[in-house]
């Protein structure tokens, strides 16, 4: 067990994000990524099994909702940001996917959120090829950074982010941890996409570094839901 974890915790209100986001170019095309959402769904399952109340905010994935979990389906990064703020802070407490004005106790930000979106969504099909050109360009604008946005105002809430990097990625993950206000960052590699097993490095804001080698995502999820920021 990583040293930053406690064996048991009192029931909490937990928000989990999972899967990719989609950024529409036109009615039939979009920008996205290969995230299956499995890690986030396993975290939601593990949290519910440990007695937590769980809201799962899912991008477009083909995963079965774990028992006892409230699921909110979203598509774009902006959709996900709105849902996360509502669940975590109770910004629209009367809507589905809210714990009320008190908000949640913890956020596990496992979704693979798209960094960019088209500056303009076309109302009809993009027909750049009709001009006869061999090269087309698409102007993009930056999406909101969900983890950084909520990290700035998290207060005493536990926030666990994820970093998927090619190569070692350790320096970038550490920078992300410090920049975005998270309590922990879970570093994994591109081989985790679509896989049932993974190797992760759990980085704590106290400088802790715990590596979990070649475990099922369900096993990793059970470790992650026991993370305790009061010891980090």
Name of the CATH architecture: 3-Layer(aba) Sandwich
CATH class division: Alpha Beta
- Total domains: 1
Task: State the end-to-end distance.
Answer: 14 Å
Instruction: Give the CATH superfamily.
Output: CoaB-like
Describe the overall structure:
The chain has 232 residues and is α/β, with parallel strands linked by helices. The chain has one domain (13-115, 141-231): CoaB-like (Rossmann fold). 22% of the residues lie in helices and 28% in strands. It contains five helices and twelve strands. The chain has helices spanning 38-49, 77-89, 146-151, 170-180, 217-224; strands at residues 13-18, 23-26, 29-31, 53-58, 69-73, 106-109, 116-118, 140-142, 158-165, 184-189, 197-204, 209-216. The protein has an eight-stranded mixed sheet, with helices on both faces. The two termini are 14 Å apart.
